[in-house]
Amino acid sequence: MIQTDLHQCILDNLNGAVAVFDADLRLRYLNPAAEMLFGGSSRQLLGMSFNDLIMPREPVIDQLRDAIQSHHPFSKHEQIIDLYSGKEITADFTVTVLHSTFGETEVLFEIIPIDRLLRITREDALVAQQVATRDLLRGLAHEIKNPLGGIRGAAQLLERELHSEEQKEYTRVIIDEADRLQKLVNRLLGPSGMPKHQNVSVHEVIEYVRSVVEAEDLGDIVMHRDYDPSIPDIKGDPDLLIQALLNIVNNARQALGKRGNITIRTRVLRKFTISQQQHRLAVKIDVIDDGPGIPADIKDKIFYPMVTGRAEGTGLGLSIAQRLVHQHGGLIECESQPGRTVFSILLPIYKVSED
Is residue 234 pLDDT above 70, yes or no? Predict the structure, then answer.
């Protein structure tokens, strides 16, 4: 079907991945963008069957054959596709049936990966969620603290007027509960003040957290390390980063109970976008556990305060961790399914000025 140099030149210079299959769904042509996507050259891939090259999780072979018979194009959106290279992508794709002047039937397959778009959309939602949560908590804290202080003060004054120890027990309950609520509000708000930035080794932070966690009774939980030693120092407050990472690791440990594996993995990302700002270098810290996964009904709300899947949990750890990482220009993402949950801390890499 690709009959002229002009046609091939156009296809070769498209940014989108284009593959052409014959009526038997064997590959006849792919452009350079498709070669990069599939992880192989035309010489390697030509003649391969559609099923070996592109494996959508939702089967489409029957629909492809129907399209060839009916000559009707079709499209699919947000499909998870396993590629020949072993790579998994989320993509939109369009199938168009072509006919040459020689009566040959060919199938034009256009693939548009949308992983990056979905990630940016998800990040925007997380950032908006974080800002809304912070503003809500500040307003809530103001509304709670003032009357709480009045209640505590009135209980103290009342206690001075009472002579019966039995009656004073009631005022002490009021004072103790007021103090408990004050501590809860303070925990909801998280650390006060701005981060004290300095050059920080990511791996020193991780090793400190690991030593703290392993000092506790882990039962049959095993911790693994998978570090990229080339990661340079980042700019950050080590105490706040330790608290954020410790909250996430503790969350993984509690999800596992007394048995399982936790892996902490670090990688460098190049030209990576965080919250719509591209950074030349970023670090990704993954905390991976092989526990039961996050319940579906709270998966989209886990960074809200007071949301937890455990009866004994407070639901504050992940909310505070997200806020601390956000103060460093970063973000925490999460992917979870039964047997594999990954919390990813994304942080830009740049050092404090030596001046």
Answer: yes
